[in-house]
Here is the input.
Amino acid sequence: QVQLVESGGGLVQAGGSLRLSCAASGRSFSTYAIKWFRQAPGKERMFVARITWNSGSTWYADSVKGRFTISRDSASNTVYLQMNGLKPEDTAVYYCAASFGPAGPPDYWGQGTQVTVSS
Here is the structure.
């Protein structure tokens, strides 16, 4: 059974940092890309960042480029999202997802973790 479990969300002041974790289990993710999405209240879920498991190549939404960094630890099957310089508009529920290949739609989703940035 595939599981993606996010953790690390919380309340932080503007300008602060958080590190989200996504622990993946239940299958080999060597041919998958792990992606982070976020959904703010009343808005659509939006792509944030992705990392291809095999190559480690990364891609970011323009809104987070230069502030967020996605990385992976193959030994623990965990993907991280380091978020620096947080802004109130980063407030959202953050989800990790796994897709077969970097361009494919997500096949698996985590349950989400809340990030709240106060001004």
User: Anything to note?
Assistant: DSSP finds no helices and eleven strands in the chain.
